[in-house]
Amino acid sequence: MSPATSHPEVDGLPLAILRKRTSEKWSGHSDEILPMPVAEMDFEIAAPIRSALVEMIQRSDTGYMGTNLELAHAFHDFSESRWGWELDPEQVYIVTDVGVGMIEISRQIVSAGDRIMIHTPVYHNMRTNWIAELKCTQYDVPMKQEGMHYSLDLAAIEAGYQAGVKLHYLCNPHNPVGTVFTREELAAIADLAQKYGVIVLSDEIHAPLTFAEHTFVPFLAVSDAAREVGICVTSASKAWNLAGLKCAQVVTAHPRTKALADAMPPAVKYRASLLGAKANAIAYQSADWLDAALRTLDRNRRAIALQLTAKLPEARYRIPDCSYLAWIDLGAYNLGEDPSKVLLERGKLAVSPGSAFGPESSQYIRMNFATNLEVLTEGIDRIVASL
Ligand SMILES: Cc1ncc(COP(=O)(O)O)c(C=O)c1O
Asked: How far is the CA of 58 from the centre of ligand 1 (A)?
């Protein structure tokens, strides 16, 4: 069997089944609304994850998190074979989710009032909620935009470091613009961070979803400087659809950053879910399911381009390098201050508003395409019907 057919197809379930789900995506709206916001997948989870969880429930293995080496080793093996990254399993810390990981490690680095660097447009919790929870303020270095291509503004990053920023949130790869950064960009950031004494938290939750023609580079695999200044926060939750199971990983690669992770309260680990840790471990061993999901997502990201050209020729969209989030500029259609509201009211389509990701993105929407082709087509038709 060739690798391309080594796993049965992974595709979006029918709407009648999805509407029975109780997650945020499926419980947030009435049935007349087609929901395509929150980053959850409409796929069935990988069979080995399902079986492992059922087995644990059958054994009533539902207590607290123990010494869990299985997850650290599974993540090590996945990272090595996928990205050539040799991480140290002893420096993998289990946390509740990526949000908690980012906040708990940040608490070891910043105090109330400090500034944290971000790059808008960026994942809304990174831009607002996490920084607010830390009582810090944001230092925004917007992504440089040429057409629908986005890149990091290294000169402005250095100016921010010079101005005293001590903590930098990198969304690597970048949500919502779907950019996978190059080794050179990441190496340049690491060198600057080392020079100015900045810690870089690299949120790599979307990394496993990088499409084949792009190369994801884990920040801690970039250089010695990156290992000294960088901390990776990640989870299998985005790529294998496990967000409700509550488990993520903080990874360090240097005594200095290890000391920061060691200083997190011991309770951080116990607040993660035992079921989530098992699901993450099995996920990292289920690369065949991931590859099958990526084939479907690849079909969908290209279908969006074709359909937009045919049905919404003024919309701007770049086929993303990774993940299942389409970042679409609807500015040419004059849909007012918030196009997502118009789509909800007129088209009965729920998408994420661009303004959530940054002040310059109010004319954009973010549409989740981890679904079947029928739902995807219906979503685009609902945009057309809203104009
Ligand atoms: C960049 C990024 N980080 C973190 C998260 C959320 O992760 P968690 O649910 O583990 O906090 C998301 C969710 O979409 C995301 O896009």
From this structure: 30
The rounded Å distance from CA 122 to ligand 1 centre is: 11
Q: In the prediction, which pLDDT does 1 show?
A: 39
Please state which CATH number belongs to domain 53-284.
3.40.640.10
User: What pTM, to 2 d.p., does this model score?
Assistant: 0.97
Q: Which residue, judged by its Cα, is nearest atom 13 of ligand 1?
A: 39
Q: Which residues lie with the beta carbon below 6 Å from any ligand 1 atom?
A: 39, 97-99, 123, 171, 175, 203, 205, 235, 237-238, 243, 248
pLDDT at 66: 87
Q: Which of 167, 181, 175 is nearest to 205 (CA)?
A: 175
User: pLDDT digit string (tens) for 148-191?
Assistant: 999 999 999 999 999 999 999 999 999 999 999 999 999 999 99
Same fold, 7-45+287-386 and 53-284: no
Average pLDDT over residues 123-131: 97
Q: Hey, what amino acid is at 221?
A: A
- Region 137-141: mean pLDDT is 98
CATH 3.90.1150.10 fits 7-45+287-386, yes or no: yes
Pocket test for ligand 1, best of 38, 94, 123, 170 (most atoms within 8 A of CB): 123
Domain residue limits, the chain = 7-45+287-386, 53-284
**Cα 201 to averaged position of ligand 1 atoms, centre (Å):** 13
